[in-house]
Amino acid sequence: AQRVTQPEKLLSVFKGAPVELKCNYSYSGSPELFWYVQYSRQRLQLLLRHISRESIKGFTADLNKGETSFHLKKPFAQEEDSAMYYCALSRVGNQGGKLIFGQGTELSVKP
Amino acid sequence: DAGITQSPRYKITETGRQVTLMCHQTWSHSYMFWYRQDLGHGLRLIYYSAAADITDKGEVPDGYVVSRSKTENFPLTLESATRSQTSVYFCASRELAGYGYTFGSGTRLTVV
Known about the structure:
The structure holds two protein chains of two kinds.
Chain A: E1 3-5, E2 10-14, E3 19-21, E4 24-26, E5 31-38, E6 45-49, E7 60-61, E8 72-74, E9 83-91, E10 100-101, E11 105-110
Parallel strand pairs in A: 2-11
Antiparallel strand pairs in A: 1-4, 3-8, 5-6, 5-9, 7-8, 9-10, 9-11
Chain B: E1 4-7, E2 10-13, E3 19-25, E4 31-38, E5 42-51, E6 54-57, E7 64-66, E8 76-78, E9 87-94, E10 101-103, E11 107-111
Parallel strand pairs in B: 2-11
Antiparallel strand pairs in B: 1-3, 3-8, 4-5, 4-9, 5-6, 7-8, 9-10, 9-11
């Protein structure tokens, strides 16, 4: 069964510290992995897709198929990064594939 | 960038009443989805649609009904609202090129 696990409900760091939000998944085929961010209960915004290998707002994420992980990293956290982050999974090549979410990690960046 | 809009933004209804949440997208995306967001559960898929007149159940469909008579609209109806359906509901669509799913601003529903 498809499953996305974000083990940390809350992650609190100080401004300027590195941050890593963990995401592990279980899926028997080839997954498409995403990170979404939600500021103050607003709409979810796409942050990263593993296929594009982009760096958005200083965040990066690498898909590790061996460890079935897609951790989100940023070397220097900023206060404006405080938000809810969701890791999500869908099937590669299936444009209608259901997006399965993890439970989310709330990131709090303290001054 | 209001390509996908939800209405109403806030709704309070009484137990047992029928309520419909609206979702409208302007891109003609084939695929549309309804999620509910609850603390401790993240986002869970209620229903999704691959095209007009094609819908299928997600993870938590009980108590909900959807329809898709037009590509751009995907309303979600709670047939007889219960307190457990108090939640924030998000509609989403996906373009065929696969750049990710785009979400609406959400509807905060309270059932009293």
